[in-house]
From TrEMBL, chains A, B:
Protein name (Swiss-Prot/TrEMBL): Formate--tetrahydrofolate ligase
EC class (word): ligase
Species this chain originates from: Vigna mungo (Black gram)
The reaction(s) this protein catalyses: (6S)-5,6,7,8-tetrahydrofolate + formate + ATP = (6R)-10-formyltetrahydrofolate + ADP + phosphate
Keyword Iron-sulfur tagged: no
Keyword terms, alphabetized: ATP-binding, Ligase, Nucleotide-binding, One-carbon metabolism
InterPro entries, sorted: Formate_THF_ligase, Formate_THF_ligase_CS, P-loop_NTPase
Ligase found in the keyword field: yes
EC number: 6.3.4.3
SUPFAM superfamilies on file: P-loop containing nucleoside triphosphate hydrolases (SSF52540)
Family of this protein: Belongs to the formate--tetrahydrofolate ligase family.
Pfam short name (any one): FTHFS
Length: 654, 654
């Protein structure tokens, strides 16, 4: 049994009750207990209620007030633990999923419950904050499921500690700054514009604000007194001359609102006909979410937010948030969001929740700072299990080539979650549709169908193995699976080169159901033989990098739209070709065609458009048509969600 | 000196430093100390960091887990203190302000610092949460100013505890539900629609979700089994048949984004040409903000959110949030927002921050629950000072006729904040423009100009007095004011019927500068001679109520647009004519014309449109053209806002 003081025993019942009922049946311990068990002192975190705490990445403002450190001061856990050694680093990916999901989050949580509550290991689970859009739409929550969940489940799924709200606010402040600046430039002379940007004070003296010096530096102007600028310099400084057609920055909302996918703004009489077509994305698709996930410190975040490119000037120069004077304000809006949120699993093991981009339209991994803090907290022999989004083709690929490249961290083991259900689909089973009852084929034994589908798993295994990590397949058992089917998956996984393949039942039994998986993961971590290998070096051209990834999908080639060609040429000219690539591709197939199951090959991958997230640090090709704003079904989840007003208990969250 | 354990002495310097520098020069005490001083125990609140705590209005979810009450359980402070007596209730309003503001928040905070830190009274300050829009736009923060501020000032102005973000999320979830529902109804038969709304489960049985029974009840259908509905009942139940032109519900954002004042949505190919013209308002203008401000309990909030009307069916019936099935989900999104946030002043007295609608476009008062909790906490002989927005013509009027009507609370004293600067403007001084240097007239003595402007103050005094409260004028002293000018204001105030008029310097000296004001307020509270009188009874017609308010503005009559006539007729037909009136009018004049200073009269008040906030509980006439979405200037405040990345210190917030 575990030496942890917060671990608690689960009493499991069968059949497995609804997720919310399980979550509500367990009384969480006060989060300060979880923190204590991680050797965190109260000046390492801020409480957000009784079950959530933000772990300090950077020192908190009140530190500057005092010379001595006391409980009022939030210390940077990262700075403090700089010297100490990391634990094992495990990433969880999956095979190409059905629309129902194959239990990747559930396996991530279940494995940690096994390691922490049954194998007496120091362990931290690193997961992404769910978007509220799907929570009220089709998908429901994302806290795991069955007896492997993060709790309190309602606090996990709603608001959390406000990080996504902060991203929405920052993203949209920048958007407002863009359109308003274009508007004001269109109605003012250089002189008037400059006078407003650098107004004289009471004594008639002008000055530049700090953020203005970033633009001056970019323009090669070293003067510090606004009055010294020549008319040409005034023009260069004050007039961003943004080309409205070049703007890639869109507004965001953490809601599934399909009617905002394409809109026209500026139709009010005061905006004098300066209408423009644009769109809203879901908040987790914001570049600011990617910045949060990939940043390494407050100072680094300030730089990344300031250099985000929103579009070009009419002469083709990239225009940044700092050019608009808003980089500092964006950082202020994000200053609390940089601290990961500590929560707990059903069995009382610690969880860090941070960042939460979708893996199909973004890079889909939780944050670097959360993983780094966790690796120090568990220390040598301990385990950090972090989740990558969707299939290993996108989630794990981006984890390796983008996240690990920026963090410098090296995983020892990659888990690929597989289910009999999904493999049957890849073997040719009928379509699986959310909200519709499952076809008979998925409820009765059909070993041949399973075996036929294992080609999908095999490619995920070999792709992931090629990074130099040991791959362990977690076979997430459903009640309808038969032993023959499960064994078929196991043999196929080993045949495809998996280090091990383990049948687990953490959904039905919690950590107890993932003990064998935990043991396999430990062995895999202790027996790494190769260094981390990336799929492509950064010094390749944008196209070469896209093609390297396309090849890993099984594509025979890549086809670029005119728009994509134009963008690639522009970004290369602007000097951004050295960035890694973040493909926006469907999670339902290796290819761009969601209907192509199994392991398709020989197809040509269409690149419809290419965007750049310069602040986050990647080039962002759109493979086929990818929606960045989900919609609501006829009967959204919200029909079932309510609150018991006498107890405050949330009902109907799934 | 005070018996409070948290009160601290201020060392004031002259000239008064920048607000943020003063705020940052004081180390706040841990908020649990402030709570303790109010006799709150840890199970009455949740910590949000070290300097903010949410005071529990309703019991917290974990209560239902246990029969015994322990620290895991959040108790309802309101329920617990039900029996105990209230303290004195003081509302702060102002004369018609200049665009620079006359220090209403500053006076509210300064008075409380005087009562708590110098007059040894139990006191709680109740203020509104500021909108982030103006914080990054023109106005800057709203924590008070000089040596009378709420701290930490940056936490007060940014995010706070997420209430406005929750309102934005809830408002926009409802908006998405409206357009998506119209879309789905347009593409589906009654039967298909009904099948999707009440899908059969594995056993083929259908059921209604709880929220659906609200609609069934409204339709007079008492059946509980979906299969029993007749085709006509299916049609009535499943088809809301919303008239797109009748939709008054708009999306919101807590950003000054003028380009969203008028937009066209639904232009994506998947939306099949179902385009619609709509707009974004700033979040604080959302009806949900008004619901939060006017609600009295979690159960009451659930009802109000469910009955919010978003528009009409094509046959003219109001369509509610519960008709759309989303009332419960909205309440879940708002479940934490209902708890007021406890903070502190520079001198360590307690502050409750809650709700924050603008008084020009909404009712502009902080929440009923915050005031109620505060009145119980201070108890008999204690003081609750609550702020009403802008001039007494709108802020105090709505406080009396809307807020007090719903809360049943009775104020003893109303403070009207006046400045020599604003009175000079009303006397005919040159225009005062934000961001532009003040005209000479405002910096040198001109008693005649001040006296000429006192007609504005006089009308605010007599209007406010007519509610039956004692009116105390707080003359907020600026360094450029002369004694003769200040005395002129004082005499004019007394002549106009003020109970007292006090010159105060809390901006320069903190509570010490408002001690005389505190003494005057205490006398005023102890010597109330009349009961509370409303300006109009609810059983008047909508027009009669509008006209009663217009008369108090000095108007000779009211002129209704065709649209306004149409809306009034509709709301009357729908049975909503018994609600109080919430005028949306400029704060810069008694009239609809912001340029008409002093005490204009004989004008005809134009009602451009009339809307209804049925959930919040008021009818909402638009007087002239009122923008519900501010814009950004050429050089927004955000140019100065940044963060010191080594200390985390926020800079440039004003």
């Amino acid at each position: 049994m575990s030496s942890s003081t917060t671990v608690r025993k689960l009493e499991v019942v069968s059949p497995v009750p609804a997720d919310i009922d399980i979550a509500n049946s367990v009384e969480p311990v006060h989060i300060s207990e979880i923190a204590k068990d991680l050797n965190l002192s109260p000046n390492h975190y801020d409480l957000y209620g009784k079950y959530k705490a933000k772990i300090s990445v950077s020192c908190h403002y009140s530190v500057w007030l005092k010379t001595d450190l006391d409980a009022q001061v939030l210390l940077s856990v990262l700075d403090e633990l700089q010297g100490s050694q990391d634990g094992y680093y495990v990433v969880v990916g999956g095979i190409t999923p059905t629309p129902l999901g194959e239990g990747k989050s559930t396996t991530t949580v279940g494995l940690c419950q096994a390691l922490g509550a049954f194998l007496d290991k120091k362990v931290v689970t690193c997961v992404r904050q769910p978007s509220q859009g799907p929570t009220f739409g089709i998908k429901g929550g994302a806290a795991g499921g069955g007896y492997s969940q993060v709790i309190p489940m309602d606090e996990f799924n709603l608001h959390l500690t406000g990080d996504i709200h902060a991203i929405t606010a920052a993203n949209n402040l920048l958007a407002a700054a863009i359109d308003t600046r274009i508007f004001h430039e269109s109605t003012q002379s250089d002189k008037a514009l400059f006078n407003r940007l650098c107004p004289p004070n009471k004594e008639g003296k002008r000055s530049f604000s700090d953020v203005m010096f970033r633009r001056l530096k970019k323009l090669g102007i070293s003067k510090t007194n606004p009055d010294d600028l020549t008319p040409e310099e005034v023009n260069k400084f004050a007039r961003l001359d943004i080309d409205p057609n070049s703007i890639t920055w869109r507004r965001v909302m953490d809601i599934n609102d399909r009617f905002l996918r394409k809109i026209t703004i500026g139709q009010g009489p005061d905006e004098k006909g300066m209408v423009r077509e644009t769109a809203f994305d879901i908040s987790v698709a914001s570049e600011i979410m990617a910045v949060l996930a990939l940043t390494t410190s407050l100072a680094d975040m300030r730089e990344r937010l300031g250099k985000m490119v929103i579009g070009n000037s009419k002469s083709g120069d990239p225009v940044t948030a700092d050019d608009l004077g808003v980089g500092g304000a964006l950082t202020v809006l994000m200053k609390d969001a940089i601290h990961p949120t500590l929560m707990q699993t059903l069995e009382g093991t610690p969880v860090l929740v941070h960042a939460g981009p979708f893996a199909n339209i973004a890079h889909g991994n939780s944050s670097i700072v959360a993983d780094k803090i966790a690796l120090k907290l568990v220390g040598p022999g301990g385990f950090v299990v972090t989740e990558a989004g969707f299939g290993a083709d996108i989630g794990a690929e981006k984890f390796m080539n983008i996240k690990c490249r920026y963090s410098g961290l090296t995983p020892q083991c990659a888990i690929i979650v597989a289910t009999v259900r999904a493999l049957k689909m890849h073997g040719g089973g009928p379509a699986v549709v959310a909200g519709k009852p499952l076809d008979h084929a998925y409820l009765t034994e059909n070993v041949a169908l399973v075996e036929a589908g294992c080609v999908n798993m095999a490619r995920h295994i070999s792709n992931t193995k090629s990074y130099g990590v040991n791959v362990v397949v977690a076979i997430n058992k459903f009640s309808t699976d038969t032993e023959a089917e499960l064994n078929a998956v196991r043999s196929a996984a080993l045949a495809a080169g998996a280090y091990d393949a383990v049948i687990c039942s953490h959904h039905a039994h919690g950590g107890k159901g993932a003990v064998d998986l935990g043991i396999a993961v430990q062995k895999a971590c202790e027996n790494v033989t190769q260094p981390l290998k990336f799929l492509y070096p950064l010094d390749l051209s944008i196209k070469e990098k896209i093609e390297a990834i396309a090849k890993s999908y099984g594509a025979s080639g890549v086809e670029y739209s005119e728009q994509a060609e134009k963008q690639i040429e522009m970004y290369s000219k602007q000097g951004f070709s050295g960035l890694p690539i973040c493909m926006a591709k469907t999670q339902y197939s290796f290819s761009d065609n969601a209907a192509a199951k199994g392991a398709p090959s020989g197809f040509v991958l269409p690149i419809r458009d290419v965007r750049a997230s310069i602040g986050a640090g990647f080039i962002y090709p759109l493979v086929g048509t990818m929606s960045t704003m989900p919609g609501l079904p006829t009967r959204p989840c919200f029909y079932d969600i309510d609150i018991d007003t006498t107890t405050g208990k949330v009902t109907g969250l799934s």
